[in-house]
Amino acid sequence: xxxxxxxxxxxxxxxxxxxxxxxxxxxxxxxxxxxxxxxxxxxxxxxxxxxxxxxxxxxxxxxxxxxxxxxxxxxxxxxxxxxxxxxxxxxxxxxxxxxxxxxxxxxxxxxxxxxxxxxxxxxxxxxxxxxxxxxxxxxxxxxxxxxxxxxxxxxxxxxxxxxxxxxxxxxxxxxxxxxxxxxxxxxxxxxxxxxxxxxxxxxxxxxxxxxxxxxxxxxxxxxxxxxxxxxxxxxxxxxxxxxxxxxxxxxxxxxxxxxxxxxxxxxxxxxxxxxxxxxxxxxxxxxxxxxxxxxxxxxxxxxxxxxxxxxxxxxxxxxxxxxxxxxxxxxxxxxxxxxxxxxxxxxxxxxxxxxxxxxxxxxxxxxxxx
Length: 370
Description:
Largest sheet: 7 strands, parallel
Oligomer: single chain
Number of domains: 2
CATH superfamily of the largest domain: Glycogen Phosphorylase B
Low-confidence stretches: none
Distance between the termini: 16 Å
Mean pLDDT: 93
Shape: globular
Number of helices: 14
CATH class of the largest domain: Alpha Beta
CATH architecture of the largest domain: 3-Layer(aba) Sandwich
CATH topology of the largest domain: Rossmann fold
Strand order of the largest sheet: 3-2-1-4-5-6-7
Order of helices and strands: EHEHEHEHEHEHHEHEHEHEHEHEEHH
């Protein structure tokens, strides 16, 4: 049995954590002893932590460690050195941007044979130029300490790794997996959700994700504001929560479209509420590979996404990308012409099974076996 350690900075609900949940739930327990290492931002994530424990995962936390300032690295390194001196692993699988390359450094110091860095994004979450420059420097350290490389898309790979790495046999694209059958369209679920939120026969644009600068939902609110002027029977349904929620609600008030925007709140049953949508829209400033877009297309929904997102996320013929710089009015006109006036046939893409849990987990096991 091989001991595998996954690293993620924290167990909040997000795309990386969803990926890990699927992988940890489906890796054969007779072949892998699974652990997760997280940092400590001082917040309570016990609900999701329990879900991982319930599927047989051991959790480790570096208490008091959270990277806010450059000075935080000193104690971080000491605790990592101590952690790897006390715990032995065959594989360390790091899901992070370059700032956590020190995990790879101390895994290598303590003789871990396979050290994998997995890129899930295409930009830094910080606006701080100095931190971005330091992050670019740390990309060289990722190359120095790791033995294998994964990415959720080629765009995510190009952002974190060097071109030579992408040509290596130790590199592979692993898409984020979904439970394909759970997201199949269901008319009864659609009726229930639409009745619950009073959506009637309106055209519903859906967005799923945390309310943050990266997700750029304020732009989507402006799109719907423009669209409502030419097509009043439109609703924007937000599913999620986050630090910018109140700011977003205030924005809808300022644009006088409160009656056109519905906040579903945080939902565990995304596979149910997604049936109520007619179009799925992502206006993110950057994404590695948005798993929610694959879930939406598995439901048969068309997707409209910003062109900052990798084109690999376009699976359906009627899914498209637009430039954010073209502005909310052009987005509104595009939605009217291409989706509202052209009813969607709720058919999933032919290759959707390639994003299923079994397919992706088997692909990952083969990569571990190299």
